[in-house]
Amino acid sequence: MDTRTELRVRFTDQERAGLSALAAGLRGVAEADLSEEDALVAALEFALTRLIDDFEVPNPTAREEVQRARDDLRAHWIRGAATL
């Protein structure tokens, strides 16, 4: 069963170039054909990890939400080895 939600995201040219570069870099590291969507999910996982590991999110409810989302993302990883 596919539980994906389609989102429309608008990027500037610079943001799109950054996403393309991230996907290219991940393809090289993972040695797999990863898409820009894969790169975006990897960047999201990395951002959540940085919030947990490198910053003290002051609001306990928000901190718990960040931790839960990151753990859930990892537990249901569907993007292969596209992690940073």
A few lines on this structure:
By secondary structure, this protein is mostly helical.
Give a description of the structure.
There is one protein chain. The chain is mainly alpha-helical and 84 residues long. It is 62% helix and 0% strand. It has 3 helices and no strands. The two termini are 27 Å apart.
Shape call? globular
Contiguous uncertain segments of 5+ residues: none
Distance between the termini: 27 Å
* Count of beta strands: 0
Mean pLDDT: 86
The secondary-structure element order is: HHH
Quaternary state of this entry equals: single chain
Percentage of residues in strands? under 5%
What composes the largest sheet? Answer: none
Lay out the secondary structure:
Layout: H1 13-30, H2 36-53, H3 60-75
Helix pairs in contact: 1-2, 2-3
Descriptive labels:
3 helices; 0% strand; 84 residues; globular
